[in-house]
Amino acid sequence: MADTLHYKASHDVEKSQTSDRDLDRVTTVQVGQQHSHDIKKDFGPFTIIALGFNICNSWVAIATSFAIVVAAGGTVTLVYGVIIASLVYATVAASLAELASVYPTAGGQYHFTALVAPKAITRVASYACGVISIFSWIALCAAATILGSQILLALPVYYDDTYVPKNWHYFLVYQAINVTLLIYNMFALKRTLWLHSRLPPSLTVVACLALSAKQPSSYVWENFENSTGWSDGVTFLTGLVTPCFMFAGLDASLHLAEECTEPSKTVPRALMVTVVIGSITGFTFSIAMCYSIVDLDAMLNTTMPIYILWRQATGSPAAATTFLIALFIIILFVVNAMQQTASHLIWAFGRDDAIIFSKQLSRMHPTLEVPVWGLIGNAGCVLIAGCIYLASTAAFNALVNSSIVLQMLSFSIPCMMLLLRKRSADVLPEQRSFKLPGWLGWLCNLVVVVFAVIEIVFFNLPTALPVSAISMNYTCAVIGIMAVLAVINWYLHTRKHYKGPNIRLEETQ
Fold it and tell me: pTM for this one?
């Protein structure tokens, strides 16, 4: 019988001596009270890669926030920002892939943190990382859901000049998407795993480039516009938030690892392939759209600027509408996959008894084969976020902006601990299916930590000077509220029940 890798809650971290051939055959994970060999492994390499790309869908992230970054720093910020973001998140993917090749669990980065953190801070560090990751995924679900409602309501706005959507209109569509996909995830997901969007932006790129009166290359590659009041350098760095959203949800495959076949191989491949495909599609789409800009000012005061660009570039309302409907369908796939992933992360956290109502959240439904309470918990939080949108769009936008900052922070914590441990073989065995050269591993981990600091500083700055109620960035306030909730949960539940998902490797025959 093939050697098996087990993860058990314990107070020590032990490493068995295994060969490359043995480690490559690792398929079983055991964490806490519920074992992953009780969970059906129905995610093959192609499915998990498709799901990872489906969530990031880099070109969709650019499409839905295109005008924001171009207005803030010109096409230069977008074009070169995409290149920088692609390189940075490649280091993220490589760093996570190394750890996932040895420890493929649904906890992802917070389990990695438990493994590599010094024993004295294991509980606190892994709990903090887990909470940060969960909040980031809830915010991502809310962000994708509101985009779906904005895309859908952009159509009647164009075809009926008398219609002006109100916040409660967006709210109702938002909640309809949230609840509908919750029901789908609970009752139909496991029967339709093949149903994942894999649509590239080819048609929109070709149509816009072929039909538009294209901008000169100098406009695309050299046009830097700064009306924010910040210096050019600060404007460029704050404008990176849109390119970085290309890789929002990059860690999706980590949290579905326990349902993957050969997770120690499949998950690292999914991480790297997602970045490669995302970089190519995001860069191609960005360049094409920048060349296709006709009237930037006409795009700025609309809810869905990309729809205006497509209408201007193609000269065909019918073609633009077709593209927008396709974009809406893709967003539904994105929200669906995000709900799926977030629920598994919440399930893992509950399984480690780190959160209130852990008894319910840790259950995997025996017949539906999904974490029903994890799905309901995530959808409930997204519903509450929708109520925030109804009360204040500024507060909701701050919640959305917090997602990318929190996500990168959750990535940086295990990387920082790994650097502190000097990438020791005690926590990162030499025999693993994904291994970076020594110097490159150090560099990737360091880049992740440094860029996390950059995001925390610059993505929390006000959008323009002088600061007003409109230009103020409330992301730091939202993160502060999340921190308060995390501390409350710690004192009410976690400090008494959470032992920390310390990991032990052992060989069985």
Answer: 0.89
